[in-house]
Specification:
The structure holds two protein chains of two kinds.
Chain A lengths: L9 E2 L2 H17 L4 E8 L5 H14 L7 E2 L8 E2 L11 E6 L10 H6 L12 E8 L4 E9 L5 H15 L20 H18 L18 E7 L2 H15 L4 H20 L6 E8 L14 E8 L7 H17 L2 H12 L4 H11 L8 E7 L6 E2 L2 E8 L9 E8 L2 E9 L5 H16 L4
Helix pairs in contact in A: 1-9, 1-10, 5-9, 6-7, 7-8, 7-11
Chain B lengths: L3 H4 L3 H16 L19 H15 L16 H14 L1
Helix pairs in contact in B: 2-3, 2-4
Classes of the chains: A alpha+beta, B mainly alpha.
């Protein structure tokens, strides 16, 4: 059943606060917000004026899109203060006419957007950039938002909803009903879960990871985004290989293993011991079987840790990752991670990230990873313009400085590498990409 | 030696147990969800499948490895239970 927007503050989830803590830290040390981005590559037919009007219309109807994020009464857990959204500016929509890159790559402008600051306290949560080529023969659109506003799944649902509103299928006030089951465990159980999560993370610290960027230092964030789109034939081969090696239920582990080995190859080139690879894998906490919410981050994190000696062979690494996934789920680490993040809602923003980095000698993890499977599955057009491609490009702080994100659009795999400029030398980047491609396709590396 | 607890599970009883776990714990489904409903359409994902396998292990004492599952197995609670039952019979 559709819901009307409430004007009561909407509390952030634990995962939202986890991300907000990194936003605070990255702002302090690197002068950028912790953002996420979804890029649509469209054919002809997008009316950019209509897009701008549509974004304004939905932001008027759904105040969460420009709600200041603050702690009610100054001490309560942070919330979207939707009652104050009317005083906030509407999301910015900018249209740019620039020449298309010779190689067809997305415009560098989109990566630059990831290095900017969104003022959460002023409700600057979302902005949209449309880049028109050849007078509108094609358009790239980037939706960039402060990370708690959407997770990957929610952002795709938001795009579908936006398209429906734009086509007149539903009104801007007609938001699909969300669902939020109350926590099933009591406070004591959740406390125990959080402590189990903490103990597990502390055990990981015995061989703390080392990222390619090294510990976080004060350095301006300068992200680069590179998207490698595989052909349909290559994607079919990669998908089949993922099913064969990782099983049809857990293809994400195949991409995770390939990403670990690609980073390991760079460490080997440097002659540096990575100590271990610690990588968080998002686990979707949305209720299964209902459409679910558009807004907020509804994920837990499964923290994998593998050692360099396990990385020599892809098969062996996959066996290890599969065993760890099962053990993590069996040990309740999905629920434990969620419970731990819930406690972060009450902590000062900096405390959470500081605790993590202290345990891992200044590091947060080895790299960011994501596998979102089919991108906007079954959606052929956006506001009447054919979708030729699309992908997610979340920002990554200067440390760990590297993120590998995978999704499939229309039978073609997009491998998106978001990295801090300067973390990879040109030679290292070639090594990284060669190793990744070799593992994905099963070619000699 | 065969697991005597597991051997007590008939295919029908397993179907009912799988259906209960899905309906009550893992999925948010309406009254139209039946043991014949498609599980992927009902929202079952890889995390929920693993949680289902763990719940089955708790009930029967038998672990069914994920590698034994296929799209056909996950077509419904019935087909899933049939796979588990066959595995138990050979365990």
């Amino acid at each position: 059943m559709p819901t009307s927007p409430t004007l009561s503050p909407i509390p952030l989830t634990g995962a939202d606060c986890f991300l907000r803590a990194f936003d605070s830290e990255v702002r302090r040390t690197a002068g950028a917000s912790h953002l996420a981005q979804l890029v649509l590559r469209l054919g002809p037919g997008l009316d950019t004026d209509a897009l701008a009007k549509l974004v304004a219309e939905v932001a008027e109807a759904q105040p969460i899109l420009r709600a200041p994020i603050r702690r009610p009464l100054g001490v309560l857990p942070p919330a979207y203060c939707v009652d104050r959204a009317a005083g906030a500016a509407l999301p910015r929509v900018a249209v740019h006419d620039i020449p298309r890159a010779p190689d067809g790559a997305p415009p560098p402008l989109f990566a630059e957007r990831l290095n900017e600051i969104h003022e959460a306290r002023r409700g600057q949560l979302l902005r949209v950039d449309a880049v028109r080529y050849d007078g509108g023969a094609a358009t790239d659109v980037a939706f960039t938002w402060l990370h708690p506003l959407f997770d990957g799944s929610g952002s795709e649902r938001f795009l579908r909803w936006l398209d429906e509103v734009g086509r007149g299928v539903r009104s801007a006030a007609d938001l699909p009903a969300g669902s939020a089951r109350p926590p099933r465990a009591d406070a004591r159980t959740r406390g125990d879960l959080a402590m189990r999560w903490r103990a597990r993370m502390q055990a990981s610290a015995a061989r703390a990871p080392r990222s390619l960027a090294g510990p976080l230092a004060r350095t301006p964030q300068r992200l680069e985004v590179e998207v490698t789109t595989f052909t349909r034939a290559e994607t079919a081969a990669i998908t089949e290989r993922a099913r064969k090696l990782a099983g049809f239920l857990t293809p994400m582990l195949f991409y995770l293993a390939a990403s670990v080995r690609a980073h390991h190859a760079v460490f080997q080139l440097r002659g540096v011991d990575p100590r271990s690879f610690v990588v968080p894998l998002p686990a979707n906490l949305r209720d299964k079987g209902v459409p679910g919410d558009l807004f907020g981050t509804r994920v837990s994190l499964l923290w994998f840790q593998v050692f360099p000696e396990t990385c020599a062979e892809l098969d062996a690494l996959l066996v290890e990752l599969k065993a760890q996934r099962l053990a993590l789920i069996k040990d309740g680490m999905v629920e434990a991670g969620n419970a731990a993040m819930d406690y972060a809602r009450w902590l000062p923003q900096r405390a959470y990230a500081a605790m993590a980095r202290r345990a891992f000698r200044g590091e947060l993890c080895s790299f960011f990873f994501g596998f979102t499977d089919e991108f906007l599955a079954g959606m052929e057009t956006f506001l009447g313009a054919p979708i030729s491609n699309g992908f997610h490009a979340p920002s990554v702080p200067p440390s760990p400085g590297s993120a590998a994100i995978f999704s499939v659009r229309d039978g073609r795999l997009n491998a998106t590498h978001v990295r801090q400029a300067g973390v990879f030398s040109g030679f290292e980047l070639v090594r990284f990409q060669k190793r990744l491609r070799a593992d994905l396709l099963g070619e000699p590396g | 030696m065969r697991n005597t607890v597991a051997m007590e599970w008939t295919r029908e009883a397993l179907t009912e147990r799988v259906y209960e776990i899905l309906r009550d714990d893992l999925l948010t489904v309406g009254a139209d969800f039946t043991p014949k409903s498609n599980l992927i359409d009902a929202g079952l994902d890889s995390l929920a499948v693993t949680q289902l396998l763990l719940a089955i292990e708790e009930s029967t004492g038998v672990w069914v490895d994920e590698s034994l599952l296929t799209e056909e197995t996950l077509a419904s609670a019935e087909s899933f239970a049939a796979c588990v039952h066959a595995h138990i019979a050979h365990a």
